[in-house]
Design brief:
The complex is a heterodimer of chains A (about 190) and B (about 160). Helix content of chain A is about 60%, strand content about 10%. Chain A is of the alpha+beta class. Chain A has a domain of about 110 residues. The relative contact order of chain A is 0.14. The C terminus of chain B is likely disordered. At the A-B interface, helix 1 and helix 3 of A face helix 1 of B.
């Protein structure tokens, strides 16, 4: 190569180099920011989705617990149709007792207070009433995630409590923690 | 000659910088992926464990409640309660206190019920005592209230079996 061409090559190299360094610097910040942002967004979305499952479980356990307490109260009490409403209302209104009952189950499961409080902060207790049907001679209450307890009355007296839904209660099929999806940069 | 060396060095540098340009993106993506994988894996593991432990606890809890409530609905005597216990927990047996007219069933320390009966009945032929006339089933342990007093493992324990 002659000297002239060499000179041109050097000049072109320097120009390209300067341009590349500028591009490098510009992209660096962009990549770093995008990587941090996308990772944070995807982590937060996953953690929220995950926590939501535990929130649903907590609320379902609250309904389940109220339903068992109601069945026990109805079977232990005066067994009249008139007593059903007040018994349910008393159970639903006693939020301390509800928390205690749910917390007791979680403690028995080996879940420590910190984790329980973390879930409770987000979940609170199940909202609304568990009463699904309130007709003469027939009452139904929800006991969490598709579970129903049926109370039958005749002439104002209790004839049967069908709590088979509670005996078969199982959250394993309805609540699942999904594996995290692959991280994606874009 | 000098110019030639410089131009070669600069060309090599240009390719080097181009390579860096491509690599830096990969580095940031890898760093972000590592952070994401570690955080989500921890959450997956921890929350799956909570979900499973609670589901397992529910299994034992519901069986204990079922004994209490089926007992209230159908049982008359301590034998009936014993049958219910065996139905839900084949490996665990309740204990009777003839003195207190109670039968205590403990599936685990968190799952305890105590049935109280009205009368003690003695089988004339065998002399075996059992409890009849179920009055109530105490579920205060299941409700998370203070645990009932642990009764002494009884006189005539399991007398009806």
């Amino acid at each position: 190569m002659d000297k002239k061409k060499m000179k041109i090559l050097v000049v072109v190299d320097i120009v390209i180099l300067v341009a590349l360094v500028i591009i490098l610097m510009t992209l660096k910040g962009g990549y770093e920011e995008q990587a941090r942002r996308t990772a944070n967004e995807q982590e937060t979305a996953y953690l929220e989705k995950n926590t939501q499952v535990l929130v649903e479980q907590w609320r379902a356990v609250d309904q389940y617990s109220m339903a068992w307490k109601l069945v026990h109260t109805v079977l232990s009490g005066v067994k009249s149709e008139a007593a059903f409403g007040p018994a349910l209302a008393a159970i639903e209104a006693d939020k301390d007792a509800r928390f205690k009952q749910v917390s007791h189950l979680y403690t028995g499961a080996g879940i420590n207070d910190n984790v329980q409080n973390g879930i409770y902060q987000k979940a609170g207790l199940a909202e609304g009433s568990i009463l699904l049907k309130n007709e003469k001679n027939s009452k139904e209450v929800a006991c969490g995630k598709g579970c129903v307890v049926k109370f039958s009355y005749a002439k104002g007296k209790l004839t049967n409590v069908d709590f088979s839904g509670l005996v078969q209660f199982n959250l394993a099929n309805s609540l699942k923690i999904e594996k995290p999806a692959e991280y994606h940069f874009e | 000659m000098n110019l030639k060396n410089i131009s070669i060095a600069l060309t090599v540098l240009v390719f080097g910088v181009i390579a860096m340009l491509f690599m830096q993106k990969g580095n940031y993506v890898n760093q972000a992926k590592e952070h994401y994988d570690a955080t989500t894996a921890k959450s997956f593991k921890g929350n799956s464990m909570v979900l499973e432990l609670v589901n397992n606890a529910i299994d034992m809890n519901k069986a204990t409640w079922a004994i209490a409530c089926e007992g209230l609905q159908t049982a008359k005597s301590s034998q009936d309660m014993a049958k219910l216990e065996a139905k839900f927990f084949p490996a665990t047996k309740g204990s009777m206190s003839i003195t207190n007219k109670t039968r205590r069933f403990e599936a685990s320390s968190a799952n305890v019920i105590v049935s109280t009966f009205g009368k003690v009945e003695e089988n004339k032929k065998t002399g075996v005592k059992s409890l009849v006339d179920l009055q109530s089933v105490d579920v205060s342990v299941l409700l998370g209230k203070v645990a009932p007093v642990v009764e002494e493992v009884s006189d005539e324990e399991g007398a009806e079996e």
